[in-house]
Amino acid sequence: MVVKPAQDLWSDYLFLTKEMGKFLARGDMDTFDALLQQRDQLQKLIDDQGDRAFTASAEGRKILDLIRDLDIRLKQGLHSRYHRHKQRDNLELSYAGGMAAAATGILMNRKG
User: Fold this and answer.
1) Which of 49, 54, 55, 101 has the most CB atoms within 10 Å of its CB?
2) 17: Cβ–Cβ under 8 A, 6 or more apart, which residues?
């Protein structure tokens, strides 16, 4: 296996993070998950290499800052997506009761 320099690994990590954002925005969660797994594997390579010189450089800090910003956006996007789906599921559950839920609503709205 060819060992890449830390700069190339972090550039690849940044690329994968950007791509994850694109697929999250499209709602393609299968591709998002595949990219996330690739990024996790890349993180292991970076950790195993242990080269901290690049991340201490100006270019390395710039790439890390970009990755942090993108990660924040990814987390916000995932959080938003989760809550939209949770609201949709709750709405579907409220209608799942059928006539029993409708009858309860009628009785509750009846005066005197």
Assistant:
1) 54
2) 39, 67, 70, 71, 74
| Cα–Cα distance measured from residue 15 to residue 23, given in angstroms and rounded to the nearest whole number | 13
Kindly state the helix (H) or strand (E) to which residue 42 belongs, with its residue range: helix 29-49
- Nearest residue to 46 via CA among 11, 96, 94: 11
Residue 27 φ then ψ, to 5°: 85, 15
Exposure string for 55-86, b = 16+ CB within 10 A, e = fewer: eeeeebeebeeebeebeeebeeeeeeeeeeee
Question: Which token pair is 45?
Answer: 């390579």
Q: In this predicted model, what pLDDT tens digit does every residue of 23-43 receive, in sequence order?
A: 999 999 999 999 999 999 999
- Given a contact cutoff of 8 angstroms between Cβ atoms, the answer to whether 42 and 16 are in contact is yes
- d(C-alpha 36, C-alpha 39), whole Å: 5
pTM above 0.70, yes or no: yes
